[in-house]
Amino acid sequence: MPRRKEEILNPLDLETDVAVGVALPLANPIGGGFALNYTTMDQAKTNLVSLLKTNQGERFMQPTFGADIHSVLFEQNTDELVDKLRNKVEEAIEYWLPYVSIRHFDISRYEHTIQMDMSFIINENEWDEGQITLKYAIPESSV
User: Fold this and answer.
1) Structural domain contains residue 70
2) How many domains, in total, are found in the chain?
3) Over the stretch 41-81, which tens digit does the pLDDT of each residue have?
4) What is the 3-state secondary structure (H, E, C) of the chain?
5) What whole-number percentage of the chain has pLDDT above 70?
6) Does the pLDDT of residue 36 top 80, yes or no?
């Protein structure tokens, strides 16, 4: 896949009252609009989760956006499945979120669940490490 043109904005988290993006899920428990992220790391987590939970073709006007993880979840729960998942995640992050570098990536297989644990940094800020965990249910017939 060809590399996208990257725009570098270098946001700084110096102003605690200035939001850098919208948080997910799109809800605000106190009402009156959406919840916001006020740090670059929180927004990077939101962007990463959004990318990994999106299938290609789901996002309007950007049909290649997403990691397309669900496309392989119906395959047999084998070591090859883990390799396919890892490749899909790495390719999607490299293309859509080039400002994120994966530090640790682990896929655990359980009877009916696959869990991905990931730690990452925002490039040029290796002191602040973010972590996410995603779980995907596997149909019983695939186990």
Assistant:
1) yes
2) 1
3) 999 999 999 999 999 989 899 899 999 888 887 777 778 88
4) CCCCCCCCCCCCCCCCCCCCEECCCCCCCCCCCCCEECCHHHHHHHHHHHHHHCCCCCCCCCCCCCCCHHHCCCCCCCHHHHHHHHHHHHHHHHHHCCCEEEEEEEEEECCCEEEEEEEEEECCEEEEEEEEEEEEECCHHHC
5) 85
6) yes
The CATH number of whichever domain residue 63 belongs to comes to 3.10.450.40
What is the residue type of 116? M
Domain that holds residue 28: 21-142
- Dihedral sign (CA 76, 87, 52, 119): positive
48 found inside a domain: yes
